Amino acid sequence: MTIEECQKLYDRVIGDLKKTIEEESFLELSIENKKISKFLNGYIYVVAEDDFSLSKINKFYIKRINSFIPKYTDETILFKFVSKDEMSSLMNTEEVSPTSLEKNLDDKYRPGNIDATYTFTNFVVGKSNKFAYTFAMQTAENPGKNFNPLYIFGGVGIGKTHLMQAIGNYILDKDIHKKVLYVEAKEFCDDYIHACNSQIEKQRKIDEFHQRYRDIDILLVDDIQILCGKDKTQEEFFTLFNFLINRNKQIVITCDRPANALEGMADRLKSRFDQGLVVDITPPDLDLRTDILKKKIKTFSSKNDLPDDVLEFIASSFTSNIRELEGALNRVMYYSVFNDSPITLDLAKEALATLIKSQKNANKYANNSQVYENIQSVVAAYYNISVNDLISSKRSAKITLPRHIAMFLIKDLYDLPYKKIGSLFGGRDHTTVMSAVEKIENDLKSDEELKMAVDNIKKKLNI
Ligand code: ADP
Ligand code: MG
Questions:
Q1: Partner of 165 for a Cys bridge, out of 70, 118, 391, 415, CB 3.0 to 4.6 A?
Q2: Which ligand has the shortest distance to the CA of 186?
Q3: Pairing mode of beta strands 43-47, 36-40
Q4: Which domains does the chain have, with CATH numbers?
Q5: What is the pLDDT of residue 98?
């Protein structure tokens, strides 16, 4: 296809899009009359106006845009919207295989389940995810060659699905014909049970199930912990796993914990999960949270910038879950639009008050004694005293200040009842704890040195 033909196709397809969506939404995309930048390996590249429109297009419209293509050509072609930076790095990329393009892309593998917004480019890298990112990237560069399976684990909302989908997107961008299948383990399980339970044509249903999962190049299975306790599905997955690995097909698995901690998962599966490469993602530190917010804000509108104090406030209030961090940012943005007032620290505090409160309550239920012990040991280490001293009844000033700070932090971060905090400090009375917490709260308003110490300790706690 020549660039002129690509251009013609683009204009037609965008014309179709215009007819099917609200005018206002359409204009917001700034998508009309764009010049085609490049045609490479089946993709027609278009540079989006800015991060705002790029994110909108990829989130809501790209599938629809591509769905119009078969009206005009039966070549396997897809539009791809990218940022200016991505385009300039693509400019030097050459065609991988200049052979004629196969017809009729089997689209069950692409648009259906890979989300175009989850890319490596959009993935902000920091200390907590650098390792996982590096090996995800290497896996995407050389699927089936290096690490098989790639097993990514970590807590909720910290980027496992994003990274996994980025692998899929990357592979597809390089080769439009690769059969990449993303599936949530839950869906795999439902599919299998559905096939097994069908009353009519059971064998055909099971054959179809096998066909769907075996005729692929890359299998991405999200949240594998769902298979715990489901013995029959595990057996089926075990067979599939071996089938694909023996054919050097890449498998990527995510999970909320390391394989050996999966209760109710067959040992032979657990050992298979460990046989490739295991990487983990830990909760984001303050720097990463701040960087993510800075990046996300650009997708709201090209003009937006968050004042530093607001940025700091959001980044330090939502510490462990990036999905919640994004949610908080959304809320502040909408709150500002809704009230037609600029984004200030006061506005952000007001917008997030209920979220922060419910977060503290949620933390309370996390109720993990390790977390409190960790605070105690970080504070003790910061002041060069022992944890034993910290929780003892000694009353020298060298020890009481750190003790009060530790109590304050536990209250502030986890909203643990005073009585419980008392029990963590050698069975102190709840009124003692209360006055310690209040004292630190008050002193923080005027004592710069104390404020700095508390900030430093929070940093060490990764908060
Ligand atoms: P998980 O699968 O670990 O629960 P997700 O991958 O769904 O988490 O991530 C939750 C949200 O946070 C998604 O919207 C994702 O895009 C975003 N996110 C997570 N990590 C990053 C990152 N490093 N950079 C940018 N966005 C991120
Ligand atoms: Mg996920």
A1: 118
A2: 2
A3: antiparallel
A4: 3-101 (3.30.300.180), 130-281 (3.40.50.300), 286-366 (1.10.8.60), 369-460 (1.10.1750.10)
A5: 38
